[in-house]
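Notes from hallway chat w/ T.B., transcribed later so I don't forget. T.B. wanted the structure written out for a chain they're using in a teaching module, and asked if we could keep both sequence and structure tokens in one place. Agreed to drop them here.
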Amino acid sequence: QVQLVESGGGLVQPGGSLRLSCAASGSIFSIEAMDWFRQAPGKQRELVATITRAGNTNYADAVKGRFTISRDNAKNTVYLQMNSLKPEDTAVYYCHAEIRTTTMATSLFSSWGQGTQVTVSS
């Protein structure tokens, strides 16, 4: 039983910044990777950024240089710092994690957050 809860979304003007947070809780042994996805109206869900337990990161081309993913392993929390926001960044942002549970530490389980709305508009 693992839960991911996103927070930090909201309305921001173009060029502004937001920081999203995603906190994992439950029967967690370790979190091997955490990701941010987003889904804009009328579009498919897309991967925004990933980070491994070791801190290795990858970004979608559309957000490189503007977004930064980070994590606090002690808090089981991942962050997405979003700078220079554009209207096309408007979407529901979802946190995702690959988790080893306390009962089955040798297996990976996928967990998703409920999503947080980010709207970039004048």
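Follow-up for T.B.: The chain has a mean pLDDT of 95. Might be a good example for the class.
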